[in-house]
Amino acid sequence: MSISNQIFNEDCITGMARHLPDHSVDLVITDPPFGIEFQAKKANYNRKGGRVLEGYNEIKGVDYLEFTRQWLTEVRRVLKPEGSLYIFSGWNHLKDLLIALDELDYTLVNHLVWKYQFGLVTTRKYVTSHYHILFACQDDKRRKFFPYARYAKDAQHAEGGSAHYKDKEDVWNIPREYWTGDVKTPTKLPAELIRKILAYSSEPGDLVLDPFLGSGQTAVVSHLEGRRYVGFEMVPEYFEFAKKRLE
Question: Which residues, other chains included, contact 66 with Cβ-Cβ below 8 Å and sequence gap of 6+?
Fold first, then answer.
């Protein structure tokens, strides 16, 4: 059984068990729920509440570790030995992700930081203007990685020095993207961020999974970059939004 270029309006834990065979996925890129009582319609990031889709599904903090164990267990089953996993996370439940990855015997390859161009203004603490990206795998000797996928070995960076070295540093300065159009989801990973991951950790024709599809961004960019995609989104409004984007 082969599943590709499909998305499902289902909970990813039961959905992966139902639809995805063992060792069928080459790469996972995902941005799970925050577990911070996230308010999708809060007046931040230049969003007007009436244009933000309803239904963001949040996970309670007390349930976050067990929830993480469950979906990472299914990911471990479906991921190929040579495959990789990229998880986006804020700092609030980063410890739960690290605990679950360790318990399930993943290898943490890199702890990357995505530095974006703004955060929320604060008066009693420092501004949070970055995201964590956990790059993990099952078999560190077999995982795919293409070190010169974006820059040739002898290419020079515009600021001087090796371009491929600069591109592979573990702090990534990539601007957030702004939605255009009448409706939007509250969060979206920049296309450039996904393209970078796809280039280094996958090949054309590979199957890319996003268990928490949201706006469909991972699937859309994967398709544009010649990869196959599969994804799960349990909120009907988000699923329909992603489906329209893919169509």
Answer: none
